[in-house]
Amino acid sequence: MSRVCPGRSRRVTAAATMLALVMTWPAVASAQTEPPEPKITSAPAGIGYGEGATIRGRLDDWTPGDELQLERKADGRRWRTIGSRPVDEKGRVRFRLQDLRFSAAYRLVHVDEMTEEETRSARIRIAVRVQLRMRTSKDHLMEGRRLRVFGSLFPKVRGRSVLLQQRVAGEWRYIDRLRAGDGFFSRYLRPNRVGLRRLRVVFGGDAQNRGGVDRTAIRVYDPDLATWYGPGLYGNRTACGQTLGTSTLGVAHRSLPCGTNVSLLYEGRTITVPVIDRGPYTHAEWDLTQETAERLGFSGTDTVGTDS
User: Fold this and answer.
1) DSSP structure class, residue 296
2) Dihedral, CA atoms, 255, 260, 265, 270, nearest 10 degrees?
3) Is the pLDDT of residue 25 over 80?
4) Which of 68, 122, 224, 243 lies 20 to 30 Å from 175 when distance is taken between CA atoms?
5) Model confidence over 105-157: pLDDT tens digits?
6) Domains 37-128 and 131-220 share a fold
7) CATH superfamily of 222-306
8) Which of 49, 62, 60, 53 lies closest to 106, judged by CA?
9) CA distances, 88 to each of 54, 67, 68, 91, 263 (Å)
10) Where are the domains of the chain?
């Protein structure tokens, strides 16, 4: 029968306890020294081309002297550090970005000075809209005349294109796809429907930028022969019941209801006047009052554009 020495037993127990403490200490120490965690607290989801953006963040469990780096990742590229700021007395940081032209992802990074261990925030994305502009060579033109539609799409990216559309019967209809890889696009049209015509160009967006749209409108006129009248008739009542004077604006037409507004185009000048009389009693389609003719620079017999 063996005997256990009380002193030896106590020494074994103490050694085992110390060993257990030594084995568990790294885990305890590790739990107490978790690396600071950066977080993005605010940033815009989308902005316009060339605009700026502010990214705000904070660092949890920070210590004086801690810094945060801001990294950006554009489409198809690697993460790149674009700035570094020390946190303030509340662990906060603010980055102001200028003249953004491409969409990109952003994140905050903290690097421990002692261990060089990095901790990163969740990424956010700021989408940048394209700058899309549309113009026409004329705002007013005769039916069947050539019109140039042109504009720009920035930033310029190879392979990009825009859709040219026209509003017809309450919906947008496709006209053409225009290449805009160099930042510009152009197309000639021959509008053949009289009246106000609405056009637009659309870029649907891609990985680099959010899409955009721009609109314009043109007025198309029917070419008709016109004359003018007035001298010798001033003071008389017109067929629509108006007294004709030297400053009377209006046109005479054989069938349009009195008071109908008619837009006229002549050599780039435009005016809108009402139907005030019946006529003309010649082979022309319209008869302009003297005041209307003078405002258009019209004299004699010539072709004018009308939208009625």
Assistant:
1) H
2) 160
3) no
4) 224
5) 999 999 998 888 999 999 999 999 999 999 999 999 999 999 999 999 999 99
6) yes
7) RlpA-like domain (2.40.40.10)
8) 53
9) 16, 9, 11, 5, 65
10) 37-128, 131-220, 222-306
